[in-house]
Amino acid sequence: MDGTLSQNDLSHVVEADRAHVWHHLIQHKPFETTDPRIIVEGKGMRVWDQKGKEHLDAVSGGVWTVNVGYGRESIAKAVYDQLLKLNYFAGSAGSIPGALFSEKLISKMPGMTRVYYCNSGSEANEKAFKMVRQIAHKRYGGKKHKILYRDRDYHGTTIACLSAGGQDERNAQYGPFNPGFVRVPHCLEYRAADQGAPTENYGEWAADQIEQVILREGPDTVGALCLEPVTAGGGVITPPQDYWDRVQEICRKYDILLHIDEVVCGVGRTGTWFGYQQYGVQPDMVTMAKGVASGYAAIACMVTTEDVFSMFKDNHEDPMNYFRDISTFGGCTAGPAAALENMRIIEDENLLENTTQMGDYMLGELHALADKHSVIGHVRGKGLFLGAELVEDRESRKPMAEKRVQKVVADCMAQGIIIGATNRSLPGYNNTLCFSPALIATKDDIDQIIASVDEALTREFA
Q1: Averages of pLDDT over each 10 residues, the chain, 462 residues
Q2: Which has the least CB within 10 A, 9, 56, 100, 211?
Q3: Is residue 249 part of a domain?
Q4: Last residue of a domain, which of 348, 369, 395?
Q5: CA dist 19 to 24, 25, 251, Å?
Q6: What share of the chain is helix, strand, coil (3-state, %, to 5)?
Q7: How much is the pTM?
Q8: Which domain holds residue 96?
């Protein structure tokens, strides 16, 4: 840390934060006696707090966002140059970076053709839900309006997104929720016994549970199925074999739009541009945010096929026959300018290849940790998106208590390594350590992360 601010200046910042900032996802009572953490600077994989302590960030900004790492001068310059030229105009008109980034993005998504800009993952998913509802009214007399979502998946913080949220502790105290959202079972094979599932062909069984829900609700009432390619905050759940093939088949059978939420997995996190590309799926709608510009500017996208887009212009003389929606800050030009440079960096530095290689290496190191620590019941992940589920007993697979899992996270933080874990989301199952280092991660970075977890597990469970 370069110490640009004096200690007195930093003390003032801490007090201003304590007095006025309402932080995300945190209880503020402890701040009456302890200082809030202020992150002052970041470079590469590391950040520094107000005390000058260095941390290796193994969760890309805390919420899976800073995919190309901190301190990228070329992205900052691209944003600066664009803001001087044109900072904003409403999305009813185009912009140079908006047009160019849409072209670049679509080149990475065969079968998709249209990009709708907005400013957060929650908002992108709201746009998709609205499109499904409007299509239902336009084509099906309003009947085919239901949206299926999966247990343990998460799609955002708004009331509609929470209505499609499969994490009951995140949803608690925010109801009543919007009607027309219907839950389907999760696909975590490690927890198949909890579902009463068979030990063989679990992937097909899990997908078939979706079909059972469709048949129960009535196929003529279901408009879309919204899924994460890899469940993120619900425990880093990679889909079982044959799952996605069967899901695609079911959606086509019943004329149901497949909406894939790539807010976490998108733009390289799994080692392909998008997580769904790992599984041979062709979606109708794809939403994305976080890694699109690596947090250097706010941007989210709702991407569709031409078939979906065409439904909103097929009767142009009808004054109601277009997508009557606006996202004010979807008209900001900083987002697509940053996203263009972010994508160039990923290409030029071969970060997809690095993500695959380092992800395989880290997965192997986590399996080695599991050989050493019996509290690790299951290791899973794809690319640099990995999880280790902690259990009290491997035979029974009883989930480790959330407080003990959080002690491991706190221990790593004290060592200067920031890791994540499922927390206050899944009743009884907040027991998975989560890792999502930036796509620039090296073996040395991963070795430091693994060593920190090893020490923390040893202290807590030895």
Answers
A1: 69 93 93 93 97 97 96 98 97 97 98 97 98 96 97 97 97 96 98 94 97 98 98 97 98 98 98 98 98 98 97 84 92 98 98 98 98 98 98 96 97 98 96 98 98 98 88
A2: 9
A3: yes
A4: 348
A5: 15, 17, 51
A6: 45, 15, 40
A7: 0.96
A8: 73-348
